[in-house]
Amino acid sequence: MSGADVYTETIKELSDRIVEAQRPIRVLSAIEGIERAAEAAIFVEVFEAFRTDGLDEEEAWSAAHRIYRGSLPELGPCTRDLGYGKGLVLTLLYVRLAIQSGKAHRIPLLFCEKVDLLAMGVLHQLEEEGLVDQPSFVPAPFNDLPALAVALSLGGFTAKLDWTRLESDYSGLI
User: Counting CB atoms within 10 angstroms of each CB, which of 51, 73, 134, 138 has the fewest?
Assistant: First the structure.
């Protein structure tokens, strides 16, 4: 299973609302941990960073273990988890590019079982020839493509905000 497959499954899981509220936080923490590991942090450093970020000891250990499983504590992360991170980024990139290029109608094809992003061009051709149908189930957020486009745009916008400064400036509101 490729990283794109795993993260397509994660996106399905998130959008299906099957998952508990903490799942997105754990996914984001894992991505941050993978980034730290890719920058040569060892297991203990990633574990301590998770603790500093607010995870309890058990959650921090579990998250760090997931990144380094199959590796030695002094060595880098397991490449499988780096592949998962790459898969998430590429899947999100695919969605953004489809929207930007006016081909958002292709996004639901991501949910034709397990799809390799590198095969999407062929999958689109097969659909155009009538050999592949749109998936029978598309998670709710992907059924409303204009709303998805707005959500992705807001994500790009909010990523540029200085949240520490905003929290400081507006903390009196709460």
Answer: 73
Q: Match 């921090």 to its residue by tokens.
A: 60
Question: Angle at the Cα of 135 (from 134 to 141), degrees rounded to 5?
Answer: 105
Q: At what angle do helices 79-100 and 145-159 cross, to 10 degrees?
A: 120
In the numeric block, the tokens 């301590």 are attached to 48
**Helix, strand, coil percentages, rounded to 5, for the chain:** 70, 0, 30
Say which DSSP state 39 is in.
T
Q: What is the pLDDT of residues 65-123, one digit of tens each?
A: 888 887 776 667 776 666 777 777 788 888 888 888 888 888 889 888 888 888 888 99
Residue (of 12, 40, 125, 97) closest to 4 by Cα position: 12
Tell me the whole-structure pTM to 2 decimals.
Answer: 0.54
What is the Cα–Cα distance from 57 to 63, expressed in whole angstroms? 10
Helix axis angle, 23-38 relative to 43-52, nearest 10°? 140
Query: Rounded to an integer, what distance in angstroms lies between the CA atom of residue 50 and that of residue 56?
Result: 8
Residues 6 or more apart whose CB falls under 8 angstroms from that of 75 comprise: 42, 68
Query: What does the alpha-carbon distance between residue 59 and residue 103 come to, in Å, rounded to a whole number?
Result: 40
